[in-house]
Amino acid sequence: MNKAIERAAGLSCFKAPTEITPLGGGITNVNLRVTDGDADYVVRLGSDIPEHGVMRWNELSLSKAAYELGVAPKVVHHEPGVLVLEFLKARTFSEDDVRDPENLPRIVDLLIKTHRGLGAHLTSPVLAFWPYQVNQTYMTRLIAEGSPHVSKLPELKAEQDKLIVATGPVEMVIGHNDLLAANILDDGRQLWLIDWEYGGYNTPLFDLAGLASNNGLSEEQEREMLTQYFGSDPNKFWRSYQAMKCASLMRETLWSMTSELHSELDFDYAAYTAENFDRLRAVLSDFHNT
């Protein structure tokens, strides 16, 4: 952490930083809050992460577009391995906050605005994030690298083949693709989306499914969410949505299995893998009983 603080202090965008403190919540980057003069900033330190498909040029492009749309903080500075953003005086959501019946419609409105509007602000190419390809890449890599979870992969591959069929044709939008509660902020006036490292073209069902599976929404809340987003009967989308919900949790599980092998951050990835694998089994059971 001392090296990270030293690097942040020496960035050319700062005149005389007076306080640099770690920010919690990041499980792929080192995040710091920097006070420079009368302004505060967030410094995100992290290089490309090939095993997760994270390319910082993609994150930068999407972060800039999201700021122009008004759903993310301004990019102040960037250089290889560094992204500096304005600090938002806002509260980080918890899973309970996402489930709050007053907040969930606000989050869905945020997704509608993002999905329908962000593309108009892009000024350079961005990646696609197709969850089934992402999952296949993870599985191939886990086998090649001798993951302790290799025995689970044939079952997951067989399940994924069924999910692909059930998903069917999809609409493409620019998605955030990592809707953990910690990536949603509330400043009292509006909601914000932060951390765009997995952003890219995807079906809107993936963000909706990720929001539900990562934050424990009830089926009633899921149906209300789909009705609000699509403006029509949720039964029309329910089977595809359920498949994408499984794909989202499978991706989170495989992400954590891969992080067990590669990440040097101080985080209990093994426990996170177990937690997500349990969640995945539950949603797969619901999917097969639908």
UniProtKB/TrEMBL annotation:
Pfam families: Choline_kinase. GO terms for cellular component: cytoplasm. GO terms for molecular function: ethanolamine kinase activity. SUPFAM superfamilies: Protein kinase-like (PK-like). Keywords: Kinase, Transferase. GO terms for biological process: phosphatidylethanolamine biosynthetic process. It comes from the Bacteria. It comes from Actibacterium pelagium. InterPro entries: Kinase-like_dom_sf. This is Choline kinase.
